[in-house]
# Entry
Amino acid sequence: MSSTLQERIAEVSRRIERACARSGRDSRDVHIIAVTKYVSLEATSAVLASGLVNIGENRWQVAESKWEALGHQGTWHFIGHLQTNKVKDVIGKFQYIHSLDRMSLAKELHRKAEAEGLDVNVFLQVNVSGEESKYGLSPDKVPDFLREISGLNHLKIIGLMTMAPNEEDPELTRPVFRGLRELRDKLNGMGLTPEPITELSMGMSNDFEVAIEEGATWVRLGTVLVGHEEGS
Ligand SMILES: *Cc1c(COP(=O)(O)O)cnc(C)c1O
# Structure
């Protein structure tokens, strides 16, 4: 990339401000997760030095060396599909898990969190678009899932997460993001969680402005912000 990290942060921040202005939102309610899965330890270190604090990684194997070196400096978000046998690696290291999508994972996360005496912030991943290639609970299964996990008191269900289809025209992703917001509001109306679900983790490099207009509180930005190193 020819631009510097500082320039990209400034540009992304401007675009977030404008999306908030268009939709009457306060930009302080939109948090940036810098997705560092494509870049090196050095580049991840530069991201933290730039003042961004939220780091997103999608595989423990890729994140491990970065976390070992930099873990204490930031807040870590696990955004990828999480295998049950990897829970032991990420618990206590990643403060947020964005990809809870099945009961076996909920139980294992809870078991490990309880053993460590901590609570873990969790987003339920929802497959709003219905694409077969995507992980996530189908929207109609979410109420029962919340009822089933309600006894797992070390899991703090703070939000919902989704991924939109990869569209050339980001406007086409809008129904997916709107669907996640409407699901959140419906769930809150049903009162299935001790605290209302406030957070929406949605929007990536291609579509974050549309996601913000539809209520995103966490946008997960890799390519547009951190960049994408060749061969990684
Ligand atoms: C890689 C990834 C992102 C960031 O993707 P970009 O399009 O590069 O911004 C966001 N969310 C998830 C779940 C990812 O795996």
Q: What stands out?
A: Residues 5-23 form the longest helix (19 residues). Residues 5-226 form a domain with the TIM Barrel fold (CATH 3.20.20.10). The CA atoms of residues 121 and 155 lie 6 Å apart. DSSP finds eight helices and eight strands in the chain.
